[in-house]
Amino acid sequence: MLTIAGRKFRSRLFGGTGKFSSPEVMKAALEASGCEMVTVALRRIDLNNPADDIMRVLDRDRYLFLPNTSGARDANEAMRLARLARASGGGEWLKLEVTPDPRTLLPDPIETLKATEILVKEGFKVLPYMNADPILALRLQDVGAVAVMPLGSPIGTNQGVLTRFQIEIIISQAQVPVIVDAGLGAPSHVAEAMEMGADAVLVNTAIAVAGDPVRMARAFAMAVEAGRIAYESGLGAVSKDAAPSSPEDGLGFLR
Amino acid sequence: MFTIPEFPALQEAVSRATEAEIVQALHSERPGLAGLAALLSPAAEPHLGAMAKRSGAITSQRFGRTIQVYAPVYLSSFCANRCAYCGFSADNIMERRVLTFAEAEREAMILHQRGFNHLLLVSGEAPAKVGVDYLEEIALRLRDRFAALSIEVQPLATEEYARLFRAGITSVAVYQETYDREMYKQVHLGGPKADFDYRLESPSRVAAAGMREVGIGALLGLSDWRAEGLALGLHLAWLRKQYWRTGLTVSFPRMRPAQGEFKPLQPVSERNLSQMIFALRMFDPDVGLYLSTREEARYRDGMIGLGPTRYSAGSCTAPGGYGQEDAGGEQFEVGDSRSLAEVSSAIQKKGFDPVRKDWDAVFQIRGDGQQAA
Q1: Which listed residue, of A191, A200, B25, B358, carries a Cα 20 to 30 Å from B323's Cα?
Q2: Test the A interface: residue of B357, B359, B371 with most A CBs within 10 Å
Q3: Does domain B7-363 have CATH number 3.40.50.720?
Q4: So which domain of life are we looking at (chain B) (predicted)?
């Protein structure tokens, strides 16, 4: 079972709410995924309106609601959004996203660290979206992030874990859960991240834009589970040299 | 400073693609400017189906199965310019009006009640009547009630854009109308708009002022659309390099019937328009693409999912036209007069989500309580 900031999660797959063809498809896909934590862009929802398209179908008792600050260009904007969300009943959990470049949506490390430090002091449970930088992960952990969310590859690219080398270091050093976020485009990508020892993954685009989002959500859930079981079972070491299946092969000359 | 090559050079570039160059551009992750030129060329026309497929796939990946919906509010029909093609031209004899603050607010709230959360505030170019003070006051009155407010008005100075950003304006559209300098001279017969270079530099001033998003476009029907498409690509690429924090959008206004009976000088067919949209999508996967109610419902429905990401709906191009049906004085006739509910239903039927809110006014204000600069 995964624990983040004292809260337990049975599923290690976290979901998103963007890019779906309808709120109803989103709801069905989230259910099929089995996820218990769902991120929602504050720019997309109207927290004060119960008839809001997304809020209407999202069961707040079933899912931990993780508002995100997508669209914020700097720490100040992200902090303002976070405070407004909390004041409107959005809770204390926050996926911090500071993405000043609207094209790549890559996170700004300096502003992310700045906002994390302040929001943690204000009582938020901050899960920062970050580039896969091992030192930044440690710095974010030091200032109180309850988890770190390094990207596998840029948002929406479906390119998989291009940052594998850095994520391996982050996982090896982290004292908080590591949730691989962004760029995971296929179940095999999330299986890879989970086999590496990631504590969880967050998937949105790959499920939302699939031909059949509900079945794809199920496929991702199965891959997360497979990857986790493989990690816990202990994967064999990778070697470039052939390892003989019989240790005595080639030693027939011995008496 | 952005400089545009001479139009004949652009025309030359979009006319000479080989089959191999087109196929290469079609299969390239980032076709680049050479690829864009190839995709805009006449030789690419037989590949329109493949272009549509690729454009649709890229759009789906970058924007998901969503289309943002918005509506324009026409604030004024006064205009100091004499543009040969425009219904608001100072040369046209018509009843002119500028909405009072209360009238503008009423028009906006009618749209709010109809379900709109993103508004585009439009006016003719009449700084004496619709100046920065006026626009600022409208923004201040509306910003807490709408997720996003865009403007399409006369070009302004950088500090004026910054002031409007602080007041709550999120994005600015300034269409060049045509990147063909010679044609520009011929159709802009008088008024401040006759200054080609000042207009060309407007998107840079918008971005430099810190505005979230800047929209560019060419009025299709004035000059060679293929070369206009390449010019748009050049402008986009330049803006991306200079202002990496600014979101970019492109509109594709095709000339519509308007008072003055101006006929398109170089007609652009729906196939042409589609080729241009697909080519720009492949060139810049992240650019927001508008398809307005200038186009007919049949065409707009067909294009859902193939490239455009933003649709207007229930539009009226006459100031005061939402509250008063016989307001008159429209800028042009719309091609798709369906309501927001009808357009949303068409979007849903195609398996897309009509998104009414994809921004929030709070982004405009800094966390320390100070307004953004």
Answers
A1: B358
A2: B357
A3: no
A4: Bacteria
